[in-house]
User: Fold this.
Amino acid sequence: MDLGITGKRALVCAGSKGLGRGCAEALAQAGVDLVLNARGAGALEATAAELRAFGVQVTAVAADITSDAGRAEVLAAAGAVDILVTNAGGPPPGLWSDWGREDFLRAIDANMLTPIALMTALLPGMIDRGWGRVINITSQSVKAPIAQLGLSNTARAGLTGYVAGTARQVAPFGVTINNLLPGIHATDRAVALDAGVARAEGITPAEAMRRRALTIPARRYGTAAEFGAACAFLCSVHAGFIVGQNILLDGGATNATL
Ligand code: NAP
Assistant:
């Protein structure tokens, strides 16, 4: 399918690895020029070089997207973009009694106020040009909160509420905002969570992964490529009527009809 977005320009945040990279790669395959961000310059430059092989322009900006200075640097390099994919690392797991005000502020800054700041900066240009796409990478924990990810549950619930209203305010101008909710995908993040479970239960990380995969109806983890393909479709010209949705990509793990 021709996604109809060849020659568009996208900012993909936290995109040197994992799900962000999956989105960047699928957009590059669709002919979209990229501004690609992550903190570590090495992996970022390597990914940028690989994506240029698709014949698109890729500008790499090594910066912490959750900091004011990092965001300013990324936005200056991005200029006018047609597509925004927001993403950042997720907050650490723990127990409700571990977390104080500073922990919540860090999580809210990274996973709620950062995507909101990026949308605030970039939506006006999209509205002026009469076309835009925003995809926020959130989590299945928005629909089915995961007990030990209380910081993530809290911050992402706030972002979800913001998007629900804002998506309806910008839709009249040809701009759509949707959230992609990953379930378990085989990325560094999932490996780190499995390693934590393995330590706590005295098993190997491979065994922790095997047990977790068995809890997913698809009996496997998702891939970054599958995730990226869904993102690219939502950014396509065919997805203009999909507005303000929270779309689960979880192999059937969340057992709910609505
Ligand atoms: P990942 O494999 O660990 O990749 C994270 C990417 O984000 C890397 O490129 C990393 O590069 C970059 N990054 C992290 N923090 C950043 C920051 N502050 N500024 C700029 N770049 C940053 O993670 P992932 O699995 O793709 O997860 C992406 C998001 O989806 C996370 O919020 C995670 O909580 C959520 N999620 C993931 C899963 C899953 O199963 N994978 C499930 C549910 C939700 P640098 O470290 O070099 O900055």
The helical segments are 18-29, 41-52, 68-78, 101-129, 150-170, 188-201, 205-214, 224-234. The longest strand covers residues 175-182.
